[in-house]
Amino acid sequence: MLTGRESLIRLIGKRRRILPNRQSILLSHPESSSHIPKDENGDGSSKNGTYISESIKAEKCGDDDDIHKSGFVTCPVCGNNVQGSDYILNSHLDVCLTRGTKRKLTQRTLLQFSFSPVSKPKVQVGESNSLGTNVIISKDKNENFEQNSILSLPEFCAVEDDNYSAQCVSPLNPLSNLEETCEEVTEENLSGEDENPSGEDENLFGEDVIKETDVDAPSFIPNAMIPKLDDVDKSTDDTSVAIFETFIVGRRFGEEVDLKIGDSISFMRDQYNVKDSNAIKVLSMDSGCKKVIGFIPRELARYLSPLIEKDCLSFEGSILSLPKHSHDVIPIRIVCQGMTKNSQMESNDRELFDSLWENVLHVVEYAKNFLPSKTKHQQNFLVLIQEVMKNHHHLFIDDEKLFIESFSSLSDDSQSLFVRLYTRKGPWFRMSNISYPEILATGYICSLESTKEPNNYDIKEVLDVLTVSELRNILSLSHSKVMCSFRSNVSRDFVLLVCSPSLPSMVLDLTGTCVRVSLTAESLLWRVQRLFFLNGEQDLKAFLMVDLGLVKYPAYNCIVRNQIFSGRTDLLAYEEALEVAQIMDESLDGDDLDKVRRCIEISDARISCSSGKVSQSSTSEPMGTFLSSFSASWVYSKVVTLGISFLEREHRYEDAIRLLKRLLNRITCDGRRGYWTLRLSVDLEHIGRVNESLSVAEEGLLDPWVRAGSKMALQRRILRLGKPPRRWKTPSFSDSIKRKIKEVHILGRPLNCDLGMKSRFYGEDGEQCGVEQLALQYYAGEEGGVWQGVHTESGIWMTIFGLLMWDVIFADVPDVFHTQFQTAPLDLGCDNFYIARKSLIESHLHNIHEGMAEEILITSWESHIGTACRGVNWDQHSLSDLRAAVTCVGGPCLASLCRLLAQDYRSWSSGMPDLLLWRFLEEYKGEAKLVEVKGPRDRLSEQQRAWLLLLMDCGFNTEVCKVGPSAKSV
């Protein structure tokens, strides 16, 4: 694989189905910085701030070549250009009218009326609907509490008077009254039903059952998404009574009971529940005998159960309303009494009580964003949208916000259907299988009929919808003779090859109307997903992995002070750069060399246009910024770096030299400068410019960004090329580079001697093995010194570093955590990691140096086992092996190694010796050895040589083990 290809693939992540700017990029002049229109505002928007992106303007389904723009009209209220569809236009008018742009009106469109006899409050666009689950902390029913704005669903109406800014009344709840005030409502689901006896779904992030002493914030709720409870009275004095609303779930596991509104209910612990030891059963009190109706939602029961078990609280409840279907959730109200015991508790018990009760409030507050009927995928999708619109709203124009936020107004069935379509491969689906036309009307999906004449690209994708028998039917109608010969080899491409121009009509006759996710929805939701995860590798499946308990992310605080993208223009430029990167990757797969060269030219030109900005921002911060990886220039530099490898493979060294010089001149602060400098020196030597190659190497050593293996390689080049008469003075680093590394030679019977193939040998037990396994067998024997060890290269060291430095890695540092799906801070591979945590790191390293490494390792392992962290491999290494390695390596060496990785994780996270060996001399004292193993045709890379010399400086015992046949081992 070309150097830089793997890195580019990780950057792109999951390839986009449609690149909306593909044609404009490929047809644009290479020196144009971007096709994004600019104006006097400089932010890609027009004077009225309503610049419509290509993805919003385009209403095309299928090939990018035929993008056609739908009509836009001028809003009579605000004067902005609005998409002309009825739904978008009406929704936009409602926004303008309700926010009082010109006149304060409250009219609604027919689409917003549900024709319910119950009056409903006004809902502002961008706010979430809500259902129950209200937290009411009532001390004195005559006391007035000032409220925030109320958002409501059909069950509630807002009442305004002189004493209350907003109050929540349920027409279905006879217990509702205007004297009870409720906190601000936002929408959520505490649970849904599944097939487990606890009666409801696994919690959102698939956590295990909580223990009584586990009093942290609810782990199933992302910390960044937990609402602040500053306005919620969390005190539990002698006169306080807490009232909140939730649901009865798991109805299918309950008994048939005739229920009425207002019926009393009670609660009982179900500690022998095989699925959830914290399960709480809900019992009917008005049926003559206690019958199980269902269960309290798992997330809430997780914290209420310890309170019930310790007899801290007693709970009473009543039914608020009855569902339409027998298995639907039932809204209930719970009254918590017995809070007076809190003042009588001992300090430890009171602290536990307060923590559990605060978590109850967290769960109830957070559980207002989703209806219980929503599926997991639907919930996760709404979380993704809401978080992005809350944190990155400045990156979207009004029409984009309106389109995205309109998703919450869709019915549950339509939302669930769209999420299924969006996450499936597709892209086309038969309309006959879809029974919800609402998402068609709103523009989230479109049909093939929207294009007047389906092109070959559309038809090629639609053929995936057909069955094999339908493909054969088309062939039989078009080319019966061909069909007879290829009846057993029917494929989509074959059908396209042999069928006549009448293929589109034949296909549509079989499939009927086909639909797919619209270009507008595809582009905007891709942006939303990218902003949420900040990478292209994660998508909605990340939620699913957590829901199933397959992945557990670490706990940390998201402290955001600076946005990733300061403005919309930066985001659009970054997205365009990602499109160029994907085109480059696709072109390499398809051997389309013309497009590869085109992508290199475009990227080189775009870096040139932004070079002044890059140099200015980089030089103002000598150590660089970890947020630079989210800039268009950084993406383009990756494309150019890959292009240089491509040109070198084509032996086009002159072109590679030109690109390398331009990169080094424009991007002054980057960890790849060492690689660029080394390649420039090598390529100059390839074309015979040895003196210039030597000068480049010498200048590279003065660059603070040239490090690790690249620096070692340049030093060795200087020693080789700088012999007299080119240079008469011996470099100061000569003695250090020429240091001898201890070598050990062992014999091995090779199985193969083919070039390009990994060497295989017969081991001491007669079995076939690799060179590393053969070396382990040698060191385990008497001749080798009776060592224990593992073959992991850098793996075991990254695991040790992650465990020893866990608290440092996930410390509270601003702007390094933006989402709850990170396995490391954004600055881990940058100089900023050490700079921002210097005092904490040095204090931690002091403890390691003084012999506390094993204790830290054990504590970290037991506290975080199974939690995803970059570099930590829980399955490959056992705790006993890690403890032995840490003990035998010793505190001083471990502290030096951890400091090195903290200062420059990116440069030193690879290339470490193959084997880590250890042996105990006494009960708690031992020694360790690091061994690089080489076969008959292998030699040390510059990174490996740099590691070995550096480890020697840190006090490690290192050596190179060379394996070969007897003739070459003497």
Question: How are the SSEs ordered, and which strands pair?
Answer:
Layout lengths: L4 H8 L9 H6 L26 H4 L14 E3 L6 E3 L2 H13 L36 E4 L18 E3 L7 E3 L71 E8 L15 E6 L10 E5 L6 E5 L2 H12 L4 E6 L10 E8 L9 H20 L9 H16 L6 H8 L6 H12 L5 E2 L7 H4 L3 E3 L8 H7 L5 H11 L1 H6 L6 H7 L4 H9 L2 E4 L1 H15 L7 H7 L20 H22 L3 H17 L1 H9 L12 H18 L3 H14 L6 H14 L3 H11 L7 H14 L12 H4 L5 E5 L1 E2 L9 E3 L5 E3 H10 L7 E4 L3 H10 L1 H4 L22 H5 L1 H27 L14 H11 L1 H13 L1 H4 L6 E6 L5 E9 L7 H12 L4 E7 L1 H4 L1
Parallel strand pairs: 15-22, 21-22
Antiparallel strand pairs: 1-2, 3-6, 4-5, 6-11, 7-8, 7-10, 8-9, 10-11, 12-14, 13-14, 16-17, 17-18, 19-20, 20-21
Tell me about this structure:
- This protein is α+β, with helices and mostly antiparallel strands and 970 residues long.
- Among the domains are: 242-340 and 348-369, Alpha-Beta Plaits, CATH 3.30.70; 375-477 and 491-548, no CATH class; 556-609 and 626-738, Tetratricopeptide repeat domain (Serine Threonine Protein Phosphatase 5, Tetratricopeptide repeat); 742-965, no CATH class.
- 40% of the residues lie in helices and 11% in strands.
- The protein is built from 36 helices and 22 strands.
- Strands 3-6-11-10-7-8-9 form a seven-stranded antiparallel beta sheet.
- Strand 20 (915-920) and strand 21 form a beta hairpin.
- The two termini are 36 Å apart.
Tell me briefly what this model is:
It contains 36 helices and 22 strands.
